[in-house]
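Structural prep section.
Before we set up the soaks we want a predicted structure of the protein with S-adenosylmethionine in place, mainly to decide which crystallisation condition to try first. Input record follows.
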Amino acid sequence: MVDNILLKYNRPGPRYTSYPPATFFHTGYSAEDYKQSVIDSNHEKPENISIYIHIPFCPRLCHFCGCNTGIAKEKNHIERYVRALIKEINTVSALIDKKRTVTQVHWGGGTPNSIPYEYVAEIMDTLKTNLEFKNGAEIAMECSPAYLTLENIDTLSETGFNRISLGVQDLHREVLDAVNRLPSLLPMDVLFHHIREKGFKSINLDLIYGLPKQTPELFADSINQVLALSPDRLVTFSYAHVPWFNKSMEKLEKIGLPTTEEKFRLFGLAYEMLTLNGYVPVGLDHYAKPSDDLSIALREKKLHRNFQGYCTRETTGQVYVFGSSGISQLWNSYSQNIKDYQQYIEAIENNDFAVERGYRLTKREIISREAINSVMCNGYLNFDEIANKFGISEDELKNTLQYSAGKLSEFVNDGLVTLDNKSIRVSQQGMLIVRNIAMAFDPQLEVKQGMYSKTI
Ligand SMILES: C[S@@+](CC[C@H](N)C(=O)[O-])C[C@H]1O[C@@H](n2cnc3c(N)ncnc32)[C@H](O)[C@@H]1O
Ligand code: SF4
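Run finished without errors. Recording the tokens verbatim:
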């Protein structure tokens, strides 16, 4: 059943990790625009500050990787990168109102746990010196278990980290060998036990399906092993094969990639095993325990999302990024830094900012973003609530979204959406193809048709 829905709705469309999608960003958006957007953000909602720190380095590269990362080209490059990142924090935080508080810090990459831990502590100190942290702020790092020792976990805990995400991807040697990835340094149960002992509030675990050598039997075994570890959250990413972005993905083609149908089977398998074992599907390919903040926020229709993943409305902030390639997500704009880390360092050293492109949203786009986020995250949209929030009538809202009930009829007939005059609700299975449903609320969809890959 799950596979059939996925097959039927596997059509081109935006991923809606942002609205408008990144395909709208342009180089006419400059460092001056970003500066102004940061100043404007002090008077906009949410007041909270979310921080993203990007570390674009890994000791060894997985052939499937679609992230902005690489092996440091020279010995002193990590040091120079950290200096630039600290300079960027000092510059941008000088523009942020000191009454606002940080509720979230997320470290991603690359492999942030592979750089010397003194740098991690220095960056955290710089953030704490420049900005006020809210009590209990979520401080998370994406870690590769291949480089994670028990002492490293102690250091992260002492530096204030209270959440950890482990990139596991697959638990079988033949799959990991095929993608040039090292297994966990320590047995996973030992890592989990120690992380919990240190009082971390949440452990997330990433898996990928659609890799070479991944049979349904092996993948089911990975899921069973993961269930025994009982992570608070879990993501099963669909392997995105984009060899024009990363040439080493071609090596995976040679070994053999699963067909779309086989991939959907793997997804369906994970979905059924995880939901049967009590995990709540949260948005696309994410799962959480029923007691986890994300599941609670979903039940209360308060789930949010940014480029770093799902979050609750309580902790959501406007996102300020530091480091190469990251995208700041402010109320009225997106701003992306230069992707190449060496060019990023030079730009910060010479000009303080490293903005490569961005986008300033119109009021209509801000309204559409609210509607699309509501559908994407909570599978729910109440026209009244959104119209009230922006001080417009329901008709004006529907006109802004260019919405008509007819756009949803196929989903209604398939039992994936229910609607009345006031609201729409997406069923649990409808959430599997929620991107397609969100397209019904995107007034600019026609503009960029033909530029998108398939939605699933
Ligand atoms: C920055 S990495 C996580 C931290 C660390 N580097 C690691 O690999 O464990 C972020 C996540 O992106 C996912 N990812 C990377 N390349 C991908 C691709 N081509 N398709 C789908 N997911 C991908 C992986 O699941 C990975 O855990
Ligand atoms: S998946 Fe993680 S460890 Fe592998 S290359 Fe990408 S960022 Fe580095």
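Observations: The longest strand covers residues 132-143.
Flagged for discussion at group meeting.
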